[in-house]
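Interim report, section 4.2 (structural modelling).
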Amino acid sequence: MTTAFETAALVREGKITAEAAVSAALSRIKSADGEIGAFIEVFEEDALRRARELDAKRKTGAQPGRLAGVPVALKDNFLFKGHESCCASKILKGHRAVYNATVVKKLLAEDAIIVGRTNMDEFAMGSSCENSSVQITRNPANTACVPGGSSGGSAAAVAAGMVPIALGSDTGGSIRQPASLCGAVGLKPTYGRVSRCGLVAFASSLDQIGPFTSDARDCALALSVIAGHDEKDSTSAAEPVPDYLAGIEDGVKGMKIGVPSEFFVSGLEPQTARLVLAAAEKLKASGAELVDVSLPHTKYAVAVYYILSSSEASSNLARFDGMRYGYSDAGAASLAEAFEKSRGAGFGPEVKRRIMLGTYALSAGYYDAYYTKAQKARTLILRDYEAAFAKADLILTPVSPTPAFKFGEKAADPLQMYLSDIYTIPCNLAGLAGISVPCGNTAEGLPVGCQLLARPFDEARILRAARALEKAQG
Amino acid sequence: MTAVEIDAGRIAKLARLELSDDEVKLYGRQLGAILEYIGQLGELDTASVPPTAHVLGLENAARKDVAVADENREAIIANFPVREHNLLKVKKIIE
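Predicted structure of the assembly:
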């Protein structure tokens, strides 16, 4: 597949039309997605119409934007005006976005063409896409396996070569884990780096939007477009947005990369450990220095995360009451019953479980024991990273303790599924930037990703190291 | 660590979720196991540790109080599950 970088250059130079670029993506989706199931909906007519408009605009002499004619997919929790946006949930079935998310505005302003919405775990709660109320998504590397989650549809769409860029959201690993399992590059920017206006909220102190791409250069290009302050997201940071492509070829010479012993422990599948440590050695051979760092509170991250994210979710998801949009129970006798019936039938099992966990943690008599305790433990995790980043510029770890697993393998036991997020969660709790970069395949042909973490707003360094790793791997 | 017993029916009521009896039993058991796991946070001495709600240290953000026209009225109305004319219809709130 042509990268976003190449496609935009060809369209800008007039060597191909945007219509041709979009048609090619649509036909790849048509031939591949019947088996994969990455897309919930393809906006075929709308995408072709916008592509033709761009071609017509170009003919008048207008200079097309940085993503001219680049086909882009959106996870089903982004608002794209006039299109359905359902978070793969029954409670939002039929809901049409009434405005554009800020990232959607930014993509459109740079002449990207949005081609469809992708499958996800309902309300971004899950690690396999098995919690979607719409469909399953298969891993392009092995269709007997899950693509990861919650942004599994976006990861699979990029890994299968259907689109060069797909957006996802990452609350505890929902971009990096599916990127690792499918073999794509997936970036979770720093908390506050990208505006979340128009992203359906899951856990507001953790959620962040980021891109899936096939390489680090496309990732840098996509981030350059979507990053920046937005007055419509009060948590978005005023930090200036650099050109992430500018220094991306500069290599890792002299860079200090921390390897935390707490991440390479029993429970980490041996082939995954070997491939991730081999990536560290390749960066060393490219001029980086490997240093030992310690993150002693790592083992508490999953517990902290499930208290805080579920508490925030129980509050955020209170707005889905069946009144103003989406599924509404028609048979209720009272208002309270209408809420209970609409929510009881509209939400799937995992969403109900998390709303209940959060409601419990925030309820009278339990608030301090669970919610405040978790907030304090979050401080300890944050301090671990501050200390580690005093010694290292980047931290290198696995993304997922195992490669892609089979359908049903972890679905019956919620706690086992939660534990598979152990390596990605701390990044969100500490508000860091993190990426998953492919670092090889297991003997069974399943992709494995290597995670690079950086200090807040140091995405440029992550992308530089990711690019160096790609080059070292050939 | 002991399994945490929770009254899932009461929590569902607080969360405005109608659950079947089977769901109450299932979620009660699963939440008990999850809370038992979460109990390991008790090992941490956090007496002198401040809580973190937010990692950016942002001040309150405010924008200018200026009225902006909303052009989405028709689209918002089109999403209403039940409406009469252009009004959203809901159940009676005051008895």
